[in-house]
Amino acid sequence: MSALTAQVIRTRRLDLQPLCVEHAPEMAAVLGDPALYTFIGGTPDTEQALLSRYRRLTAGSPDPAVTWLNWVLRLRDEACLTGTVQATLVADGCGLLAEVAWVLGSPWQGRGLATEAARGLIDWLSRQPVHTVIAHIHPDHQASTAVATAAGLTPTDERHEGEIRWRRIIRR
User: Fold this and answer.
1) Are 133 and 122 a contacting pair, CB within 8 Å?
2) CA 65 to CA 2: how far, in whole Å?
3) Residue 109: which H helix or E strand, with range?
4) Which of 56, 61, 75, 103 has CA atoms 20 to 30 A from the CA of 68?
5) Which CATH superfamily is domain 9-169 in?
6) What is residue 93's predicted lDDT score, i.e. its pLDDT?
7) Rounded CA Rg of the chain
8) pLDDT band at 22, cuts 50/70/90?
9) Of 121, 103, 117, 122, the residue nearest 169 (C-alpha)
10) CA distance 119 to 115
11) d(Cα 66, Cα 147) in Å, to the nearest integer?
12) H-type helices in the chain, by residue range?
């Protein structure tokens, strides 16, 4: 479908690095706080489960109409991984629609890193043949609501599995 691949995206404090299987051990610790799953559901993956998941993600979507792009967030000053961002690209009649998501490990929250990462991702997507960016956010998730707002997304009246659909149209 899309020839797009994840590339390194550099922001003021972060390097968004394309996901690879070797990130799983460090990411198991980053994503290990059960509080991260309050709004998105589930529980933390073990290192082995993350290895398996990252193998599937890096192999790519089995649906040729869908492209998965995944990054880990490396905080340069601390030389550590802090979270993830992702974009799922789907072709429609106008180009590509990107559904984005972000997760930041608990120790790094409250420092603007999720906002920085989301802005970096959406800025990169805006230079690709993407016409619309969407995110689905639980109505009670104030931190993700703040990130979406700062990244230029606006809430819609649409709901998906109880979450609010946020949208940003990319102007060319």
Assistant:
1) yes
2) 8
3) none
4) 75
5) Gcn5-related N-acetyltransferase (GNAT) (3.40.630.30)
6) 81
7) 15
8) very high
9) 122
10) 6
11) 25
12) 24-30, 47-59, 113-126, 142-150
Amino acid at 121: L
Whole-angstrom distance, CA of residue 147 vs CA of residue 110: 11
Pairing mode, strands 95-104 and 130-137:
parallel
CA atoms of 31 and 45, how far apart (whole Å): 8
Residues 114 and 83 sit within 8 Å (Cβ to Cβ): yes
- In this structure, what token pair is assigned to residue 9? 């995206």
Q: Is 143 helix (H, G, I), strand (E, B) or coil?
A: helix
Q: What is the pLDDT of residues 129-149, one digit of tens each?
A: 999 999 999 999 999 999 999
Q: What is the pLDDT of residues 77-89, one digit of tens each?
A: 999 999 999 999 9
Structure tokens at 133: 């960016």
User: What single-letter DSSP state applies at residue 24?
Assistant: H
Are 33 and 42 a contacting pair, CB within 8 Å?
no
